[in-house]
Design brief:
Elements lengths: L1 H32 L68 H28 L5 H29 L3 H25 L4 H22 L2
Helix pairs in contact: 2-3, 2-5, 3-4, 4-5
Keywords: Signal
Protein name: Pectinesterase inhibitor domain-containing protein
Pfam families: PMEI (PF04043)
């Protein structure tokens, strides 16, 4: 009886410690089973581009007119001359009236016209000297040489009138250039039939002198 009593006393004494130990073990197990939270990565700041401190160069409009390109040496006996309104550098639509006075531009155009007429005259001379050229063609070519001489005189008078600021007379002189070349073309149309080479040059002169007259109006 005494032994049982002692046993019960020991149980009552150590029971709280036993239950405390069991609670600690269960808490530790719960911590081991709980998932470990994954840290959220912080976003990396994107670098803001800084504007370049060096400003881009601003293109400036050219104030000069390109001279007409000189044709390369033609093969001996060649009677061709490539013509185009763009190759002379005077049909440039990007050229604004504010960049250069109309009369100065017209003067440049007239100088280019004179150069082209001289070149084309050399072609006509070769055709005229060709023994295969027919009589009627020779007759028109001889007339064209005279017409082109008159056209060159009209060019010189046009430039002189512009230099004197006599624009009404300059308009008349410029129109005479086209008329002189037209007369050459008319000879072929009336006597032989249209000559492709003469017609091409006549159309070119019409286009350039037309632009020249427009530029004189901008003065």
């Amino acid at each position: 009886m005494v032994l049982i009593r002692q046993t019960l006393i020991l149980i009552f004494i150590f029971a709280p410690f036993f239950f405390f130990f069991i609670s600690c073990v269960e808490a530790a197990s719960a911590l081991d089973l709980a998932p470990t939270p994954t840290p959220t990565p912080s976003p990396t700041p994107t670098p803001t581009p800084t504007p370049s401190s060096t400003p881009s160069p601003t293109p400036t409009p050219s104030s000069s007119i390109s001279e007409p390109p000189s044709p390369g040496p033609s093969p001996e006996g060649s009677t061709s001359l490539k013509l185009g309104l763009s190759d002379i550098g005077i049909q440039n639509k990007a050229l604004k009236a504010s960049q250069i006075e109309g009369s100065k531009l017209a003067r440049k155009q007239l100088q280019a016209i004179e150069q082209r007429i001289d070149e084309f005259k050399a072609i006509l001379t070769k055709r005229l000297a060709d023994p295969k050229t027919s009589g009627k063609t020779q007759q028109c070519l001889a007339q064209c040489e005279d017409n082109f001489e008159d056209a060159i005189d009209s060019v010189k008078m046009s430039i002189e009138s512009i230099n004197k600021q006599d624009l009404p007379k300059a308009n008349v002189d410029v129109s005479a250039i086209s008329t002189d070349v037209d007369t050459c073309n008319d000879c072929f149309k009336e006597m032989i039939g249209e000559d492709k080479q003469i017609k091409t040059f006549d159309n070119w002169i019409r286009g350039v002198t037309g632009d020249c007259l427009e530029n004189l109006q901008k003065h």
